[in-house]
Predict the structure.
Amino acid sequence: MSAKKANSKYVPQPTSSRSTWILGGIALVVIAAVVIIGVIWQSDRNETRNEGYGSVKNSAVQVQLQPGGAVRLGTPEATKTIDVYEDSLCPVCAQFEEMYGQEIAQAVDEGKIAVQYHLLDFLNPASASGNYSTRAAAAAQCVAESGNAEAYGKFHTDLFDPANQPAEHGSADHTNEDLAQLAKQAGAPDDAVSCISSGTKVSSAGADAQAAKAAMAALGGKGTPSVFNGTTSVNIGDKNWVSKVQ
Amino acid sequence: MSRSGRLGHTLNLRRRVLEYPRSLSRVPSKLVWIRIVSLLARFGLAAVWLISGWIKAADPTQTVVAVRAYQLLPEDLVRPVANTLPFIEIALGLLLSIGLGVRLTAIASAVLLAALIFVIAASWARGLSIDCGCFGGGGAADVDAWDYGREIARDVGFMALAVWLIVFPRSFGALGPHSRAYSATGFSVEPQGDLAE
């Protein structure tokens, strides 16, 4: 290396003074602390809330497909209702579900909140089939219509599971038949399964998704996932938001 | 540190003091230029790591999504990597900023950059269209070969800074004994003695 050549007139330098060693040592300790504290802090921020709870399991929880296409999941007594806007193809929504899905499920089971899910489809162009988001929204409506809340909760979780969620701009996504299988595994009754595989709800789900997107935009939502408590936008970057909206 | 015995140290000091006028006049201007380039490379690379690490640290969800989008890691490793990477980058940036262990830091930078270049190239080869997430962001996006090429070219540019610093780690205003341009007494201009000896 060229440094070697220049080194022919090597003059040994005093390697260091005590103060540089102290300064360097302090700097190393500070940097190590930044890394360790940073990683712990970040892990805490990215932690799955309520890990191990799973999806809703209380038999008192009901699911209703509402006139506008939104799906309400909650006990009849739950007075607080939050609105969740998601697109089935959105990776940040998958991360949202992974982090908060189980905490939401428990709050729903305990009757503290009810959730209205609005499935949008603006990411259709990014799906391999060109209409995956709409078909996934239709499938969720089929399961909701069956009235089986436990199956709906499980199906909704599975849709957003990174293991199942198709990649944006990916080479493949799920056919209606695949979605029907997923619903069946989640415990959806036969009429819901055939509703999905026949694609009965796809066109109405598309219209519902358009309306839901407009509703979200009217509330000031800029993308998915967006959560609203009435007309107030919920800061889902705050990891305690689920307990705060209760 | 091998010559840091008291006697050796005194002798060295004597020699340098005796040589002082000559040694200063003999400082090749080329060497000064190398030190200046090293200084720019050091702060350039430090800025790259600090900015990139900061943006990633500030949006943890986006960082997880970006790491996952590459589809290279098993799901169990996605979050640990996403949680750690930003702070590794920040640590590299801080070490370069203060000039501590510059050669080692530059080697680590080059290794990390090589890994990032590999990851981007792998997604390109597999036809994934994802935003690289290099400066935050990430996840799927409409990207084409041009975007991938540009991202790789940028990282290769950063790699050049790292390689320069591996070869010439010394620069002005550095804290580390082997990263300083001059000795503590301020006049000995000495290229990388530690490797050469």
In short: Chain A touches chain B through 45 residues (CB under 8 Å). Confidence is low (pLDDT under 50) at residues 1-8 of chain A. DSSP finds nine helices and six strands in chain A. Strands of chain A lie at 62-65, 71-74, 81-87, 114-120, 226-229, 232-233.
